[in-house]
C-alpha cells in the first residue's frame, strides 16, 4: 500500500477529511463540464475515487463509502435543485466506484503474476465495462426526471462516459509512482511528436476513422517510455479527442436507428483504442523486469548478494571504455576466509552460509563505491578497484582485514571470530582492456594470497609491502 500522510489507517480523521475534500474538488470539476443538465463531458470523480480506494485498501468500508456519498449529496444540495433525484444519481456514482474497487482488490488477492499494474490490463478494461453498465442503469433512471430524456439515450451517455473515463484515468492513477521521465533528447521526443502530428491529421481529415490515427504513435510511445508516462500520454490524447469531437472540430456522422449522438461512438472508440498502448507498455515493462531479474540472477551471488564471477566480468567489460587511458589503473585484492572449512564441519553449513553472508556485508560496506566486490566461489572473494592507486589499494586491504578481525559473527548464542587472508596485485594497464588486465592480476593476486597463508594467515601480502599481521615478509 502506498504511504500518504493524508490517507492513513492510523489517522482516520485526517483520512476522512482528505476523502471529503477529494470528492468535493473532483465533483466540482466534473460539474463545471456539464453540457446538458446532469450530463458532463468528463466525469473524472468516479475513476479518481476508485483509484484511491484501490491504492488504499483500508478505505474500503461502509464509513468511507458513506462519507463520499454524503459529500456528493451535500454538493448537489447546495448547487442544484434536483431534490430526491440527486440520491439516485449519486448512488450510481458510488456503484461504479465500489464495483471497480472491489473487483480489482479481489483480483489482486488472487493473482500470482507480478505486473506493473495492480491487475491485468484486459481485466481492468472488463471491470470498467461492467461497472459502467451498472452505473448507467441507475444513473439513467435517476436522470430521467431531471433531463426529460428517454431511458436509452441517457443510458448510452452515462455508459460511454463512465467507461471511457475509467479506461483512460484508472491506468494512469494506478501506475502512478515517482516520476520516471525519459531522457530529453530529440530521438526520445520522436514518439511524442508522432502523437501530436497524428492528432493534427485527425482534425484535418475528420471522420470516425480519424480517432484511430494516434494509435500507432501511442504504441510507439509504449515501446520507448515508462508505463506511468505512457498512461499519462494516453489519458491526455484520449481526453483531447473527446473535446475535439464534442466541439465538432473532429466531425463524426452517424446514420443508425439507434442514433444517440456522436459522443457515444467517440467515447467507446477512444476508450478501446486506449487499451492498445496500455497493453503494449505493460508487456514491455513485464519483459524488461524479467530480463533485469534474469540478469541479476546471473550477475549476483544469491547467498551473499554481491557480484558473482560472471557479474564482475560484465562490470569490467562495461567499464573498459569508460576510463581515460591516463587513469587506467587496476587494483585486484583476492580474499579468502581463514579455516572456513572448520566452521562448516563444526557448526554446519547453515552457520557457514550465515557467516559468508555477514562477511560479505561487512566487506561490502568497507569497499563502498571505491570498487566492485564479488564472490568467486566458496569462501573466496575478490575486490576490483579501477582508477585506484597502489597506496590506496593497500590501505583498503588493511582496513578490510582489521574490520573482519574485529567483527563478531553471532550464530545460535555463540560468537564466532574469523580472519581473512588477502593477496593484492596492482598495475597500470594503459593498453590492455580491463578484462585482460584483471585476468593477469588475478594470477599475481592468487600468488600473494598463497604467501599470506604461508605467513600465518590474517595477513595482507603484496609486492614490496610488509606483511600486516603476526609475521613480517
UniProtKB/TrEMBL annotation:
Q: Which cofactor does it need?
A: Mg(2+)
CDD domains according to UniProt:
GGDEF (cd01949)
Q: Name one GO molecular function term.
A: diguanylate cyclase activity
Q: Which residues form the GGDEF domain?
A: 328-465
Which controlled-vocabulary keywords does the entry list? GTP-binding, Membrane, Nucleotide-binding, Transmembrane, Transmembrane helix
**Record field: catalytic activity:** 2 GTP = 3',3'-c-di-GMP + 2 diphosphate
Give EC number(s), comma-separated: 2.7.7.65
Question: What are the annotated GO cellular component locations?
Answer: plasma membrane
User: Top enzyme class of this protein?
Assistant: transferase
What start-end ranges are recorded for coiled-coil regions in this protein? none
Q: In which pathway does it act?
A: Purine metabolism; 3',5'-cyclic di-GMP biosynthesis
Q: Which residues cross the membrane?
A: 12-29, 35-56, 63-79, 85-104, 124-146, 189-213, 225-246, 258-280
Q: Name one Pfam family in it.
A: GGDEF
* A Gene Ontology BP annotation from the UniProt entry: negative regulation of bacterial-type flagellum-dependent cell motility
**Protein name (Swiss-Prot/TrEMBL):** diguanylate cyclase
Species source reads: Mangrovibacter phragmitis
Amino acid at each position: 500500500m502506498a504511504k500518504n500522510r493524508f490517507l492513513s489507517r492510523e489517522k482516520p480523521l485526517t483520512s476522512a477529511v482528505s476523502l471529503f475534500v477529494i470528492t468535493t474538488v473532483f465533483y466540482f470539476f466534473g460539474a463545471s463540464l456539464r453540457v446538458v443538465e446532469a450530463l458532463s463531458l468528463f466525469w473524472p470523480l468516479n475513476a479518481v475515487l476508485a483509484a484511491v480506494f484501490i491504492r488504499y485498501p483500508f478505505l474500503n468500508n461502509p464509513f468511507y463509502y458513506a462519507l463520499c456519498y454524503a459529500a456528493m449529496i451535500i454538493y448537489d444540495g447546495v448547487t442544484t435543485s434536483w431534490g430526491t433525484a440527486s440520491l439516485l444519481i449519486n448512488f450510481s456514482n458510488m456503484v461504479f466506484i465500489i464495483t471497480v474497487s472491489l473487483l480489482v482488490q479481489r483480483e489482486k488477492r488472487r493473482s500470482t503474476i507480478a505486473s506493473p499494474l495492480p491487475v491485468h490490463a484486459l481485466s481492468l478494461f472488463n471491470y470498467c465495462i461492467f461497472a459502467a453498465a451498472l452505473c448507467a442503469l441507475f444513473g439513467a433512471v435517476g436522470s430521467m426526471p431531471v433531463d426529460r430524456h428517454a431511458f436509452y439515450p441517457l443510458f448510452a451517455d452515462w455508459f460511454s462516459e463512465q467507461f471511457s473515463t475509467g479506461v483512460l484515468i484508472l491506468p494512469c492513477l494506478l501506475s502512478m509512482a515517482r516520476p520516471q521521465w525519459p531522457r530529453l533528447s530529440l530521438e526520445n521526443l520522436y514518439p511524442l511528436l508522432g502523437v501530436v502530428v497524428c492528432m493534427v491529421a485527425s482534425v484535418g481529415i475528420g471522420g470516425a476513422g480519424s480517432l484511430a490515427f494516434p494509435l500507432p504513435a501511442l504504441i510507439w510511445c509504449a515501446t520507448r517510455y515508462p508505463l506511468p508516462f505512457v498512461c499519462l500520454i494516453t489519458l491526455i490524447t484520449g481526453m483531447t479527442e473527446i473535446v475535439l469531437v464534442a466541439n465538432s472540430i473532429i466531425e463524426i456522422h452517424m446514420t443508425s436507428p439507434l442514433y444517440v449522438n456522436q459522443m457515444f461512438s467517440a467515447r467507446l472508440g477512444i476508450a478501446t483504442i486506449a487499451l492498445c498502448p496500455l497493453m503494449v507498455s505493460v508487456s514491455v515493462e513485464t519483459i524488461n523486469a524479467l530480463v533485469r531479474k534474469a540478469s541479476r540472477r546471473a550477475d549476483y551471488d544469491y547467498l551473499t548478494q554481491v557480484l558473482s564471477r560472471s557479474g564482475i566480468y560484465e562490470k569490467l567489460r562495461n567499464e573498459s571504455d569508460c576510463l581515460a587511458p591516463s587513469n587506467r589503473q587496476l587494483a585486484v585484492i583476492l580474499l579468502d576466509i581463514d579455516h572456513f572449512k572448520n566452521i562448516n564441519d563444526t557448526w554446519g553449513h547453515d552457520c557457514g552460509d550465515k557467516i559468508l553472508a555477514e562477511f560479505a556485508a561487512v566487506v561490502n560496506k568497507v569497499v563502498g563505491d571505491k570498487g566492485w566486490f564479488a564472490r568467486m566461489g566458496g569462501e573466496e572473494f575478490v575486490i576490483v578497484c579501477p582508477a585506484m592507486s597502489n597506496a590506496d589499494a593497500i590501505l583498503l586491504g588493511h582496513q578490510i582485514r582489521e574490520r573482519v578481525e574485529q567483527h563478531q559473527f553471532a550464530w545460535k548464542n555463540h560468537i564466532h571470530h574469523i580472519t581473512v587472508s588477502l593477496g593484492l596485485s596492482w598495475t597500470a594497464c594503459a593498453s590492455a582492456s580491463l578484462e585482460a588486465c584483471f585476468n593477469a592480476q588475478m594470477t599475481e593476486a592468487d600468488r600473494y594470497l598463497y604467501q599470506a597463508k604461508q605467513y600465518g594467515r590474517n595477513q595482507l601480502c603484496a609486492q614490496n609491502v610488509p606483511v600486516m599481521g603476526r609475521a613480517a615478509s
